[in-house]
Specification:
Length: about 80
C-alpha cells in the first residue's frame, strides 16, 4: 500500500471531482454531504480546526499539510482502475 503523509491535502479539480468527493464524504469526520461544490479548493485530511476540510486556494493550505497529487491519491486509495 502507498503511504501518504499523516496530514495531506488535495486540489479538488476536474476530471477527478467525483472520485475525491466520494472519498471525502465517506471518510471525513465532519460527514459533510457533498464536497463537489468546492471545485478549485484544497481539501485537507484530516480536517483542520480552522478550515474543516476546505483550504480554498494554495495560499491557505495549512503549513503542516503536504499537497498530494491525484496520482498519489489513486495509489493510496484506489485498488481498481478507474473507468471514466
Amino acid at each position: 500500500m502507498y503511504n501518504l503523509p499523516n496530514k495531506w491535502c488535495i486540489l479538488l479539480a476536474p476530471p477527478n471531482v467525483e472520485v475525491i468527493n466520494k472519498w471525502f464524504v465517506k471518510n471525513s469526520a465532519s460527514k459533510h454531504p457533498d464536497y463537489s461544490k468546492y471545485v478549485g479548493e484544497y481539501l485537507h485530511f484530516p480536517a483542520t480546526a480552522s478550515t474543516s476540510h476546505r483550504g480554498f486556494s494554495q495560499e491557505y493550505v495549512q503549513k503542516d499539510y503536504t499537497i498530494i497529487s491525484f496520482e498519489d491519491f489513486k495509489r493510496a486509495f484506489i485498488s481498481q482502475p478507474l473507468i471514466y
